[in-house]
Amino acid sequence: MEGLELRTPYFLVDERLLQKNLELLRQVADEAGCKILLAQKAFSMFACYPQIRRYLDGTTASGLHEARLGREEFGGETHVFSPAYREDEFEELLSLADHFVFNSPGQVRKFGLRAKEAGKSTGLRVNPECSTQEGHQIYDPCAPGSRLGTTLAQFDPELLPLLDGLHFHTLCEQDSDALEVTAAAFEEKFSPWLKGLKWLNLGGGHHITRPGYDVERLVRVIRRLRESYGAEIYLEPGEAVVLNAGFLVTSVLETLHNGVEIAILDASAACHMPDVLEMPYRPPLAGAVGPGEKPFTYRLAGPTCLAGDVIGDYSFDRPLAEGSRLVFEDMALYTMVKTNTFNGMRLPDIVLRKMDGQVEVVKSFGYETFKERLS
């Protein structure tokens, strides 16, 4: 890992690894005849936008600030979806976004005409009530009682004159077989109203750039939908854009023993990789494997006062010691966008490794970042 003289912790995104993902996504878009957008909720490191926009068609936003970032820093198409729009932000959003997706018939009635009169493309997010996930209900928009998307029972065909398209997003880190199942459920429920729409948006959660992903099936599903209904097809992946293109470099501050060997790091699960606790999951770590598989096993933990600030148990070839550097992998997605300053933790610097191998610190954080959020 280059740049080890940098102060830890820091995030590092590698343009060469990012490029591999972007080339595959462009290939999918060309073969399937669809448009692919960057979901900024997963990755908003706009220092990378000049590279990404050469391959993708635009961005998606979850609200005003992401929409502004996409418009100002990325360009192309700017799409926005919110479960409920704020009245005091909607006029500004109209100046930023091209596509508005509404979550419910009530939101269409409240804002749809204003968006259409402003020349925007409008759509409705639907819930095909088809869960294909296991074990991640927090990320399942089709879970019982979901607030996301309009079910068939709630759908109002009288709103169709205000709609250019329909949107569904039901996947999370899944292959194209799950999309195929979901698309079939979507058509079964909503096919009477699909012909004549300008576009269909198949959402995100497509793990397109993961090794072994069935790209051919994805292309078939998209082509069939496009040819069946004459609609433009959109995908809006986040993870797939930066999958395996980022790292979090951290140092060991202290080791101790309490029934197990423990290493306190300068990176925190709670502050710097909260999905480790929220998902939960065990992030990959370069040179390490599961507990007990190598001679030296440690519980890696963060420096905050939260008792549960634990990243996980890993084993190593050699003992860890103060100053040991560890490199967590696949740390571009849902990391920088979720960091926080609990306990006054310093946020990790953001570092970019350029195509030529040069390393550049694009953002550093300090006390003022913590202080200015609070008063």
From TrEMBL:
One BP term from GO: spermidine biosynthetic process
CDD domains reported in the protein's UniProt record: PLPDE_III_CANSDC (cd06829)
Required cofactor(s): pyridoxal 5'-phosphate
Membrane-spanning parts: none
Coiled-coil features, chain-numbered ranges: none
Protein name: Carboxynorspermidine decarboxylase
Keywords, alphabetical: Decarboxylase, Lyase, Pyridoxal phosphate, Spermidine biosynthesis
Annotated positions binding substrate: 239, 275
Gene3D superfamilies: Alanine racemase, Lyase, Ornithine Decarboxylase, Chain A, domain 1
Top-level taxon of origin: Bacteria
GO function terms (MF aspect): diaminopimelate decarboxylase activity
Residues covered by the Orn/DAP/Arg decarboxylase 2 C-terminal domain: 140-331
PANTHER family: CARBOXYNORSPERMIDINE_CARBOXYSPERMIDINE DECARBOXYLASE, DIAMINOPIMELATE DECARBOXYLASE
